[in-house]
Amino acid sequence: STQSTWGNSGEMLRESLLWCLWLCFLPPVLVCKVWAWLTLKAVNLFDDIILTRLSFYLHPERHPDKNMFLHTATNFGPLPSEFVNFQLPYITAPQSRDSPYLQAEADVRADETLKAYTLAPTSGHLPHDLRGQFVRNGPNPRNTPTKLYHWFDGDGMLACVHMAAEEQTGRQFMKLGELTGRLGLISILLWTLRRFLGFFPLLPVSPGQGPAPTVAATTDFELRTGTANTAVVFHNKRLFALVESNYPFELRVLADGVLQPRGHYTFSRTLTHTMTAHPKVDPVTGEMVFFGYQIRDKSRPWVQCNVVARDGTLGPDFAPGVSLPTMMHDFAITEHYTVLMELPLVFEPERMFRGLDAFTFSPSLGSRFAIFPRHATSPDQVRWFAGPPCYVFHTANAYEDGDEVVLQACRYSFINLDLSSFMDSNMSQLHEWRFNMSTGKMSERPLGSENRPNVEFPTINNNYLGRRARYCYCAEFPQVDAASMIARSTGVVKVDLASGETVGRAVWGAGRVGGEAVFVPRDPPSAEDAGYLITFVFDDAAQTSDFVVVDAQSMATVCTVRLPHRVPFGFHGTFIPGSEL
Fold first, then answer.
1. What is the SS3 assignment for 180?
2. Phi, psi of 440 (to 5 degrees)
3. How far apart are CA 94 and CA 284, in angstroms?
4. Which run of H or of E encompasses 280?
5. Is the Cβ–Cβ distance between 191 and 215 less than 8 Å?
6. Runs of H (alpha helix) within 48-180
7. How far is CA 180 from CA 50, 153, 343, in A?
8. Pairwise CA distance, residues 62 & 9, whole Å
9. SS3 assignment, position 219
10. What is the C-alpha separation between 19 and 26, in angstroms, rounded?
11. Whether the Cβ atoms of residue 516 and residue 573 lie closer than 8 Å to each other
12. In what order do the strands lie in the sheet with 337-342?
């Protein structure tokens, strides 16, 4: 009886102690939770008052309620609530012009009724060997911007033939439009507070990717926010929507061309840094080569490179030793080498104290080019070449020519990130650099004559990627639009890379604006230029968009299809052969 009483007393004592401990720790925990919640509300309120309302007066040129024509009007502007899926059944032989063999469906919302349209080509016919799926990515703001905004900040939307779907994303991420002046410093502070408080609305991680990576959770959170609005790449039966500040976003491509969002993809949780929007898929080895850059943390490499095997296995990180937090948008590969460009568009946040943009072009830094073996393991394997200052958004190709590595790209003499700077006085032109791996010397030259066209968005037959290609196809920007004060693409030029001369041109017509044209080889492939160029073209007067197919050899338009909805201006696309669907 004594033991039983003592046992009960001991049990009661233990329970009392546990309750005391619980009551001691519970209030601080609750206070911390409440404090975090109140802090987050205060951050968001401060964000709304300062960045939304005060920016209206301090930066009217970038505010959507003022002079936002460059970013949110005409075909830059968001679509209404309807998003379109275009389906184009294929035929085995050319049909007459009035044959209604093109079908389209408008997917209004998941919970609304599908509308069906029957379309005839406006002109020409759809080639019988053009089988597959065209996917084009671009920024399309899902919600009306309420703060400082830049075209590059819009939510990613995939416009597809067969299908167009919206790429949705979280909202709290660092945007280029906000990295201006003292308000930009406040943006960085609020962004840092949100990260500290764990407030990041995340898109899902693609299923079946294994255990979590050995990387700080906040870093992983950062890489799973953003827009996925720049480009797309298809590798190992996976389609990725890409933006250079985040993980790739995976979509599954079904046999009928329907896109099924899967979530952010990290290669079985082994990818721990950003991925460029312009990875390169070697047409011979099937490897996908990419890099990722960051601009904030000096303790980590500014740039890291990776190679993904044909079967989707991610190789180890390699840091080539880039010395600056530079905006590195694109790069190139050859059969054996990777070519990086350290160009003087650098991140200098202290400029915001003076009311300036955080990114600045610094000519005094010059340009540096890094060339190293694709599977390099040591910075000692990197060869550096220095040259005059310039900037490159997009490369056309690179290849090996004896002891030299040859790079071809669209070169700007200077750059900033304001769309109004993309005018004919500062448009890019095709340029060639030669790097002698034996002597360490570099030479460069413009491709073409003095009257060469202003071009961007270069594409080639990707069967020649990393090897010597004869032809390049570029969007042409011959003049500045008086209303918007930015250059508009009026057609596509075909350039002979051996001579640099323009050997063909497709012109969209008065008031019609295009963009990048994706090359699709004929099936079966034959000559390098035997294929088609496919793109979307916007008619400014009619406020409509067309799907256009051009013969890449003759540069003649072979098919135009009027779409039932306009497609906003976008960036980069790809073509997935029907055999891969």
1. strand
2. 80, 10
3. 33
4. strand 280-281
5. no
6. 55-58, 69-72
7. 14, 14, 21
8. 72
9. helix
10. 10
11. yes
12. 332-333, 337-342, 367-373, 383-387
> What is the pLDDT confidence band of residue 3, given thresholds at 50, 70 and 90?
very low
Q: Is the model more confident about 110 or about 207?
A: 207
Q: pLDDT > 70: what percent of the chain?
A: 62
Amino acid identity at 530: A
Bridge partner list, 137: 158
Sign of CA dihedral 493, 496, 499, 503: negative
Output b/e per residue, 250-269; b: 16+ Cβ within 10 A. Answer: bbebeeebbbebbbbbbbeb
Q: Which two tokens stand for residue 281?
A: 């898929």
Q: Yes or no: say if 306 and 376 are a contact pair by the CB < 8 Å rule.
A: no
Alpha carbons 449 and 464: distance in angstroms, whole number = 25
With vertex at residue 514, the alpha carbon angle to CA 419 and CA 508, rounded to the nearest 5 degrees, is: 130
Indicate the helix (H) or strand (E) that contains 304: strand 303-308
Q: What is the mean pLDDT of the chain?
A: 76
At residue 169, the pLDDT reads 32
Dig out the tokens for 130 from the structure: 């053009």
| Residue-wise burial string across 103-121, b where 16 or more C-beta atoms lie within 10 A, e elsewhere | ebbbbeeeeeeeeeeebeb
- Cα dihedral: 357, 363, 364, 365 (round 10): 80
- pLDDT surpasses 70 at 262: yes
Tokens representing 490 are 């009026």
- Measure Cα distances from 86 to 104, 116, 162, 565 in Å: 4, 10, 5, 10
Bridge partner residues of 459 (DSSP): 473
Structure tokens at 520: 């699709």
d(CA 400, CA 407): 9
Helix (H) or strand (E) holding 107, with range, is strand 102-107
Chain centroid, CA 73 distance in Å: 21
Residue 466 has pLDDT above 70, yes or no: yes
SS (HEC) of 340-381 = EEECCEEECHHHHHHCCECEEECHHHCEEEEEEECCCCCHHH
Task: Burial-class residue 182 by CB neighbours within 10 Å (0-12, 13-18, 19+).
Answer: middle
Measured CA to CA in angstroms, residue 297 lies from 191, 219, 303, 319, 347 at distances of: 15, 11, 11, 14, 12
Which are the contacts of 114, defined by CB distance < 8 A and separation ≥ 6? 105, 106, 107, 108
Q: Does the predicted TM-score (pTM) go above 0.90?
A: no
Q: How far apart are CA 477 and CA 59, in angstroms?
A: 29
Mean pLDDT in residue range 409-436: 79
